[in-house]
Design a protein that fits this description.
The protein is an alpha/beta fold. Helix content is 37%, strand content 22%. The longest helix has 13 residues, at 79-91. Keywords: Methyltransferase, Transferase.
């Protein structure tokens, strides 16, 4: 497991030390597609759900309310964000079925963090665009998703169908927060699904403002016929 010695944890703490207090209020206007991601998780009764880079806990609260029997897990590299997440989840009455820890999205296992073999559902919301080695984080997250489960993600797309002035302004503003939309995200989702013999669905939302992807690992022996 990572000891967070790369300095990314320190950077994220610096970015969110004060931002965390207004994060949810401000981000609701431009982190689009998060609730659509949650609606499509289709968590089984009593299922386990992990949010990678859980931030303030906003999404975990939504998951807990939408799926009242789900067991919730989350981690973030920022201790500042985790402080806010714990407070928010307690206020929402979800502390008793939520476990939060500090961890690095590029170097974690379900067993090492939570003593579980994997999770029924794993999701990543607007975080890959902030993780330098986002390809490793995505592959690692899929590796902790149960066979027959679902890895879901939503993040900024390339705004190809939006006015150039809008896209240019958005990218410049996001860069102030160390956010860089990943041009290769759609291709990476499809490649990773194929490599692991799973299926992938990708939607480009709001005129390519955001990309919503889902990867479903196959069940054991899926596609094999009985002798």
């Amino acid at each position: 497991m990572s000891d967070h010695s790369t300095g990314h944890d320190q950077l994220m703490n610096a970015v969110y030390r004060n931002q965390r207090f207004i994060y949810d209020f401000t981000r609701k206007y431009y982190l689009l597609g998060r609730d659509r991601l949650i609606e499509g998780l289709d968590v089984p009764p009593g299922g386990t759900v992990l949010e990678v880079a859980c931030g303030t806990g906003r999404n975990l609260i939504k998951v807990g309310q939408r799926y009242p029997n789900a067991q919730l897990f989350g981690f973030d590299i920022s201790t500042e964000m985790l402080t806010t997440a714990r407070s928010n989840l307690k206020r929402a009455g979800l502390s008793d079925r939520t476990t939060l820890v500090q961890a690095d999205a590029t170097d974690f296992t379900a067993q090492g963090l939570f003593g579980l073999p994997n999770f029924d559902r794993v999701f990543i919301s607007y975080s890959l665009s902030m993780i330098p080695d986002w390809q490793t984080a995505l592959a690692r997250s899929l590796g902790q998703t149960a066979p027959g489960g679902q890895l879901a993600l939503v993040d900024f797309s390339q705004q190809k169908q939006l006015p150039r002035w809008f896209s240019k302004g958005l990218l410049a503003w996001l860069a102030l927060f160390h956010v860089a939309p990943r041009a290769e995200l759609t291709a990476q989702i499809q490649t990773l699904a194929a490599k692991n013999r799973g299926t992938a669905d990708v939607d480009h939302l709001y005129r390519d403002y955001a990309v919503l992807g889902r990867i479903r690992p196959p069940l054991p022996n899926a596609g094999q016929t009985a002798p």
